[in-house]
Amino acid sequence: MSAAARDNLTKLLDVMAALRTPGTGCPWDLEQTFATIAPYTIEEAYEVADAIGQNDMAALKDELGDLLLQVVYHARMAEEQGAFDFAAVAEAVTRKMLRRHPHVFGTPEERAAGAAPGFWERLKAIEKAERQASGEAPAPRVASTVLADVPVALPALTRAHKLQAKAARVGFDWPSLAPVFAKAREELAELEEAIEKARGTDGGQKPSGADSDVAEELGDLLFVIANVARHLGVDPEAALRKTNDKFTRRFTAIETALARDGRTPQQSNLDEMDRLWDAAKAAERGA
Q: Is 151 inside a domain boundary?
């Protein structure tokens, strides 16, 4: 690390300490807790991902700084409680990286052996057992902990992908993509059936999101789609993010085209907007 990097990191830690100093600090910062800051931490991580997706290096620099601030914030609050400080966080992750890369930092024999398949998962399992034995981590509440370390707070699509990957490692998986597609068709049919039942009990009206059967079947379908993504080796969250960007880009093109005629989408209709959508799609593909 360069002298400038050390100086700037020290300044950042000092700034956070000043913000959290009772009497002279920032009232808003002093009110915050781990729970109130956590949503900002998640948001900043997404903004980092967005900057990467946009290939915007200037934005990435700013967003990484904002994410680093979140780490500093949590570490400062922990230090105030006497739990740990930023130095302990940095030390712990450094030791973890050294330990998890024996093929890079280990003995000559370990480096020569390379990264054996599955060693990362085995090493993480050993680390978890050691933390539980030392009291640093809570003991498992049930005998099976295959899915226990998949964070509940993850975005649902990402968590579905990780849950399925964990289960697959112990053999609970379809052998190929074909039965996953068959399951997707089955879940789609069950969703359609649930929708028809809901319409039958509601005078033919469109079912609301409050209908528990419809919501459950939709969740099942989304879960299977996440499994399709896993079998294809695709990150479903990243794929959906790209599609969201594409939709935003093409709908903005519709708005721009209408604005040239002095109109808004509210002053158009579906047929016209569909034509403009197709035009935007063709323009993107160079047609």
A: no
